[in-house]
Amino acid sequence: MKLAITSLFVVTLILAGCSGKGLVAGETPPAGEPRPVPGGEKRAEAAQRQEDLGKSIKAGDLEAVKRTLQEHPEALDARNLNGFTPLLLAGYHGRAEIGLYLVEAGADIEAQDPMGNNAYMAAASGGSTDLIRVLLEKGADPRFRNRLGQSALHQACLLGRLEAVQLLIGEGADVNAVDESGATPLYWAASKNQLPIAELLIEKGAKLDVATISQRMRPIDAARVHQHQRMVELLQDHGADA
Fold it and tell me: In terms of domains, do 213 and 96 share one?
C-alpha cells in the first residue's frame, strides 16, 4: 500500500497548490553560501514564471494562461520546480478548458510527472472528462500505467471521480486491473468510501475478493479498517466473503 499512498500524497500536494517556493533560485543566499552562478537570474525568472502560470491554471484563469504563453511560448512544456508541466497541472486541477487550449497549442501529452503520470492520468485524477476524450482522440494510450502500476481508472476511483470512472469504463478500462501493490480499482473505491463508484465497478464485473500482495487486504477488509460500514454492507450484499 505504501507505493499507492505515495501516489495519492503527490496528487494531494498538487491539488493543495504546493509550489515548492523555497526552492526558487535567484534569492539572496544566506551569508557564507555561494552566490548564484551566471545565468541564475534568468533561470529564477523562468522558474517564477512557471509558478505563476501554475497559479493561473489552478485559478482557472484561461486569459492569463494565454497571455503568458503568447509572451513566452517556451513555457508550454516547461516544468515547474516540482516537475509538472502546465498540461499536467490543468489535468490535476480539473481545468478542462485550459487543458484543451494547451493541447491545441501543441503541449506534449506524453510528458510525465515525477510519479510517472501523464496528461491522461492527470485528467482522470482531476475528473476532466472533456480533456480525457480529447487526449484519447490525440492518441493517448488508455492502457498507460504509472510507476506504481496504476491505471487511470485506479486514480479516478481513488479520488472519487465518478464521471471519469464511467467514461474510462466505457472506453474499455479493465475494472480488475491490479497495481504493483495488488490493489484493484474496487479496493481503492472501498478504501475511500466511494459508494457510487464501487456500485458501478461491481455492476461492470469487478471481482470482490482480490487481495493486495503484502497485507492480503481485500476491498471489504479495506472498508472495515477505515470503518466504512455502508461500504462493508454493499460488498456483502453482492457476495463478498465476510
Answer: no
